[in-house]
Amino acid sequence: MKLHETASQTVGPYVHIGCMPNAIGLHDVYPEDLGARMRGESTEGQKITIEGIIRDGAGAPLTDALVEIWQADARGRYGADGSGFTGWGRAAADAQSGVWRFETIKPGAVEAMAPHITFWIAARGINMALHTRMYFPEDETLQASDPVLAGFVPAPRRNTLIAQKTADFMYQFNIHLQGSEETVFFDV
Amino acid sequence: MTDLKGGMIPRDWRHQPPAFTPDYKSSRLRSPKLPKLSMPSTPSEDSGPVFTREILGPLDDDLTLNHAAPGEMAIGPRIIVHGQVKDEMGRGVPGALLEIWQANAGGRYRHKNDGYLAPLDPNFGGCGRAITDDEGGYRFHTVLPGPYPWPNGANDWRPAHIHFSVFGQSFAQRLVTQMYFEGDPLIWRCPIVATIPDRAAIERLIAPLDMAATVPFDARAYRFDLLLRGRHASPFENRPEGL
Ligand SMILES: [Fe+2]
C-alpha cells in the first residue's frame, strides 16, 4: 500500500536556530553549521562564488530565508569526493540585506545536462520549500540541448534560471518569487 | 554516476499546502503565481547529500541538556519525541538527518527577532539533531514547547509545535514540517496548520501521546513518524558526504 508523504509546513521565521545557528550568532550549540564549507584545498575544479537575493512580490529581499544547493563535482559526479568537496551547501540570507553566498566550484555537465546547481529555498511564508536550478551564462551551447532547460522550460522563462557573471568567477543569481521576472520553480 | 532517469515517484499534491494561502498572510507576497513546472526527476534530484554520525555531538539529540550549564537542565515538562522515517512504500529510511528547533516551555525562541514577553531559559538552546538508525528510527529528549502569539490576525496563537527538517536519500525527498501535540485546541485554529487542504494530512502531523514509550517518573513520550516521497525501487549510487 502506498502511504502519503508527510505534509509540509513553513519553516517559519526562526529556521536558522535549527539549521544554521552559527550564522545568526548562536555559537554555543554546534561547532560549525552544516553546509557552511563545500570545498577543500585539493578540490578539483574552478573555484567560484555565487551570491544572490530572493525577493518577494513587492521587491523586498527575504532576510529570513534558508538556501541550500546541491551540485555535481567538476567531473559531473554527485557526492563527496574525499577532497573536502561535499556537493551540498547551505546559507542563511543576511538579516539586513538578504544576500546569501556560496563558495564552491563550478560543476561539470551531468550526462546531457549543462552544468547547473539545484537550489532549495525555505522561509517564512513559503508553505513548501521551492526547488529551482541555476545555470551558467557561458554554457549557452550545452544549454541548447539541455533536457530540462530546453526540454521543459518555456523559452521566454529560461533566462530566470541563468546566473549573471559579475566578475571573474563571481556569479549572481537573484530569485523572484512573484512578478514579471518570477523564477521558474519545479515540481520534480 | 547513475544513469537513472525519473527515480522519484511523482509527488501527490493533494496532501500538500498550496503556495498562496491568504489567511497565512506571509504567503501572500511569497507565493509563486505561476504553476510549478513538472518534470521527471534527474540524477540531480535523485541523488543527495549523505550525513554520517561523525557530525553529531553526544548531546545533539537531547535538548534538555545540550545547552544547559553543567548540572543544570532546561525548564519545562520533560518529553521524548520519537518515531520512524519511512518512504511512501513504508520502508524505513536509515541515515536520514533530522534537525529540529522549537520555542522553550514559555513559548519563546532564542532569536533576536522574537520579542515575546515569556522569558528565555538560559539552559535551553532550542535545537537538536539526529540521524536515523538502520530501521529509520529516531529519538529526541526535549521539553514541551509553549504556544506563542504571532502577528498575523488580531489574536493568532501557534499551537505548541516542533519544527522538523529532514534529509532522506534523494535531494527531492527534502522535507520541512512541524509536529503538533495531541489534544492541543489551538491546532484547529491555526492559519499555518490550515494551509494544508486535507484533514487526514493534518492529523498525521499531530503526535499522539505514547504511553508505551513513556519513561515512568521521567518523561512522557510522543510518537511522530515522518513519511518521505518514494523512490522507484531501483538501486543507484550515492557517495558518502564524508564531512
Ligand atoms: Fe515555530
Automatic annotation (TrEMBL), chain A:
<dbReference type="InterPro" id="IPR000627">
    <property type="entry name" value="Intradiol_dOase_C"/>
</dbReference>
<dbReference type="Pfam" id="PF00775">
    <property type="entry name" value="Dioxygenase_C"/>
</dbReference>
<comment type="similarity">
    <text>Belongs to the intradiol ring-cleavage dioxygenase family.</text>
</comment>
<keyword id="KW-0223">Dioxygenase</keyword>
<dbReference type="InterPro" id="IPR012786">
    <property type="entry name" value="Protocat_dOase_a"/>
</dbReference>
<protein>
    <submittedName>
        <fullName>Protocatechuate 3,4-dioxygenase subunit alpha</fullName>
        <ecNumber>1.13.11.3</ecNumber>
    </submittedName>
</protein>
<dbReference type="InterPro" id="IPR015889">
    <property type="entry name" value="Intradiol_dOase_core"/>
</dbReference>
<keyword id="KW-0560">Oxidoreductase</keyword>
<feature type="domain" description="Intradiol ring-cleavage dioxygenases">
    <location>
        <begin position="50"/>
        <end position="78"/>
    </location>
</feature>
<dbReference type="InterPro" id="IPR050770">
    <property type="entry name" value="Intradiol_RC_Dioxygenase"/>
</dbReference>
<dbReference type="GO" id="GO:0018578">
    <property type="term" value="F:protocatechuate 3,4-dioxygenase activity"/>
</dbReference>
Automatic annotation (TrEMBL), chain B:
<keyword id="KW-0560">Oxidoreductase</keyword>
<dbReference type="InterPro" id="IPR050770">
    <property type="entry name" value="Intradiol_RC_Dioxygenase"/>
</dbReference>
<feature type="region of interest" description="Disordered">
    <location>
        <begin position="1"/>
        <end position="50"/>
    </location>
</feature>
<feature type="domain" description="Intradiol ring-cleavage dioxygenases">
    <location>
        <begin position="81"/>
        <end position="109"/>
    </location>
</feature>
<dbReference type="GO" id="GO:0018578">
    <property type="term" value="F:protocatechuate 3,4-dioxygenase activity"/>
</dbReference>
<dbReference type="InterPro" id="IPR015889">
    <property type="entry name" value="Intradiol_dOase_core"/>
</dbReference>
<protein>
    <submittedName>
        <fullName>Protocatechuate 3,4-dioxygenase subunit beta</fullName>
        <ecNumber>1.13.11.3</ecNumber>
    </submittedName>
</protein>
<dbReference type="Pfam" id="PF12391">
    <property type="entry name" value="PCDO_beta_N"/>
</dbReference>
<keyword id="KW-0223">Dioxygenase</keyword>
<dbReference type="InterPro" id="IPR024756">
    <property type="entry name" value="PCDO_beta_N"/>
</dbReference>
<comment type="similarity">
    <text>Belongs to the intradiol ring-cleavage dioxygenase family.</text>
</comment>
<dbReference type="Pfam" id="PF00775">
    <property type="entry name" value="Dioxygenase_C"/>
</dbReference>
<dbReference type="InterPro" id="IPR000627">
    <property type="entry name" value="Intradiol_dOase_C"/>
</dbReference>
<dbReference type="InterPro" id="IPR012785">
    <property type="entry name" value="Protocat_dOase_b"/>
</dbReference>
